Amino acid sequence: MEGFNITSPPLIVKDKIIVGHAGGEYALRGFLDAYDVMGKHLWRFYTIPAPGEFGSDTWKGDSWKTGGGGTWLTGTYDPELDTLYWPIGNPAAMTDRSVRGDRDNLFTDSVVALDPDTGQRKWHYQFTPNDGHDWDSTEDMVLVDRVWHGRQRKLLLHADRNGHFYVLDRTTGEFLAATPFIHQTWNGGFDAKGRPKPIPGSNSSPEGSFLVYPTAGGATNFGAPSYSPSTGWFYLEYSEAGAQYISAPQVPQKGREYLGEGPARRLPPRGPNDPAPNAGIKAIDPETGKTVWDFKLFQGSLANGVLATAGGIVFASSRDGNLVALDAKTGKHLWHYQTGGNHAASPISYAIDGRQYIALTAGNVLYSFALPE
What we know:
There is one protein chain. The protein has strands at about 10-15, 15-20, 30-35, 40-45, 75-80, 85, 110-115, 120-125, 140-150, 150-160, 165-170, 175-180, 185-190, 195-200, 225-230, 235-240, 280-285, 290-295, 305-310, 315, 320-325, 335-340, 350, 355-360, 365-370. By secondary structure, the chain is mainly beta. The chain has a domain at about 1-130. The N and C termini lie far apart (about 55 Å).
């Protein structure tokens, strides 16, 4: 056992089955595979390049062999551009950056655009170079066609675990914009090509970082976001809190977690501008990157998500057991239902004989709600 496992369903693209893997916290080399419908292996894209391949110089020594880079959340496909967009997870060792060198560690914490017929890379964008925080970029890549800054564009929208909301041109991979959507203290801005400018002392180290926002769980995670063509806004659940990142050397061993974490200590005190831990649901305007409204939740979560509907309602699951309905334009609370069970999934919508339903799981129970006829 090397630590590979599967936590998300494959993606069917034309006559191919595209499947990734989890286990990026282990001493392994990540990849993405394609099979035909009879199970024949067609191609493999390694998320950690070997010597001589593009990006290999972003790894120190032989660290590429155990560089992590899981592909554990299902990607997104654009049939018009015939392009596959796959999110890539964190590097390994997860926290100890010394083994990887003070380098970018491609293609971890990135989105990679691939040719689905060959697995060849078209372009990539890295959200967090040289990550020592466990900020996988496996949050959904949302594909939107819309007018942006006066021009019709094919966009990729992405709210990352590192606390920034990104707008990319999905045809070329061009960086268009990035804006913090929670309080963040690790990045001082971006250069013209979209490379972040990390604040000294914010990354992991044996001495420990200062109190960095967001935490390892991230500002958002694998709970589904949603985009509404009606409002033109992006909706997501978020968490806002800080953590200290402490590294320690670890010898990589197959089949064992390869984290490189130092012992936990009492957290440094919050600064005068650092908020207390909080969570909620936000609407973000991709045109400006600014938050339009913010609905607070009792508890943050890695898994709960939102669903924006054409009826102008945002449905959200919350960790405290409530299914919540909000006005998509104002964030006003319209309705909620307490299921009595923990939520770890996002709501879905479906229709039968023209009647719409909203469903989600809570604990071991599947709930379905019918909208009025």
